[in-house]
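Continuing the series of single-chain predictions for the mutant panel. This is the parent chain; the variants come on the following pages.
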Amino acid sequence: MSDTSFIQRSVLTLLRWLESFRYIKFGIVGASGTVVNLAVLSLGHEYLFSAIEPAGSKPYASLALAITVATVNNFTWNRLWTWSDRVKAEALILHIDPMHPGPGKLSREFITYAAASAFGSALQYGLTLLLSGSMDYRLANVIAIVIASVSNFLANDKWTFKRR
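Parent structure:
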């Protein structure tokens, strides 16, 4: 047995073990959402909304768009990975395909997710605007995301993807 295959197996074992911790999964999804959020925020503020958000101003519209796009990203990955065990369990009860639940069921899940994340989104929006007065708006946004993430996890764990 080579050292490489041993290392690969060890890394895979570690990743499987880490995968069992829901908050770590949520954090990984959140990290991807942060990248999406920052990309949309920067593109929106620097280009898309530059006429209404000149350089040095607060990113009102671009921040709202960034939060919206990141919410869709996070919902998708949290549903497919973070809480996939609960999604599959509910699908068994309802006798539906968990990966293709139908537009009505998926829409209701997303609306519930967005509602559960609303406090965190509002907190992120307000903190980013508040902090962007004294630091770069992107750094302010990252700080706000970290603070808001705890409430988003708790709300979605207890409400959107609750145990049935």
